[in-house]
């Protein structure tokens, strides 16, 4: 299991996150309401937080201590998210460049088979497989 997967697994209930971050439950829910964190929900609708969520809350807390308002925090975090997405896209492009033609064909074939197996069309706009079920 990769570190990325481990860090994004929702493991912690709100009580543990409160102890780790020294934030109140109300503060944590407030940041969720404003789209700064996105905890997973269990079947019983309880919030579970990942390591990433805890890191984000600690970052929010630090920015608040530096007297940054909520609007500023949203901008800072969105810029960081965009940078992270850009790095991820660069990694995807370099990984795609490393594929041989045979490997690319194999990947495309398996995607088409999987899309048909689960009887759900590919959601990419303009993709033709959604018409062949």
UniProtKB/TrEMBL annotation:
Residues 11-79 form the HTH merR-type domain. It holds the Pfam family MerR_1. SMART domains: HTH_MERR. Transmembrane segments: none annotated. PANTHER family: HTH-TYPE TRANSCRIPTIONAL REGULATOR TNRA, REDOX-CYCLING DRUG-SENSING TRANSCRIPTIONAL ACTIVATOR SOXR. SUPFAM superfamilies: Putative DNA-binding domain (SSF46955). It comes from Fredinandcohnia quinoae. Keywords: DNA-binding, Repressor, Transcription, Transcription regulation. It comes from the Bacteria. GO terms for molecular function: DNA binding; DNA-binding transcription factor activity. InterPro entries: DNA-bd_dom_put_sf (IPR009061), MerR-type_HTH_dom (IPR000551), MerR_fam (IPR047057). This is MerR family transcriptional regulator.
């Amino acid at each position: 299991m990769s570190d990325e997967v481990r860090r994004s697994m929702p493991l912690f209930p709100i009580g543990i996150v409160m102890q780790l971050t020294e934030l109140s439950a109300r503060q944590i829910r407030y940041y969720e309401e404003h789209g700064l964190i996105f905890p997973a929900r269990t079947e019983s609708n309880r919030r579970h937080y990942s390591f990433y969520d805890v890191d984000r809350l600690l970052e929010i807390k630090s920015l608040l201590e530096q007297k940054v308002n909520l609007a500023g925090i949203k901008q800072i975090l969105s810029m960081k998210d965009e940078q992270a997405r850009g790095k991820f896209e660069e990694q995807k492009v370099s990984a795609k460049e490393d594929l041989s033609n045979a490997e690319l064909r194999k990947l495309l074939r398996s995607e088409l088979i999987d899309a048909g197996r689960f009887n759900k069309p590919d959601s990419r706009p303009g993709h033709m497989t959604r018409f062949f079920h």
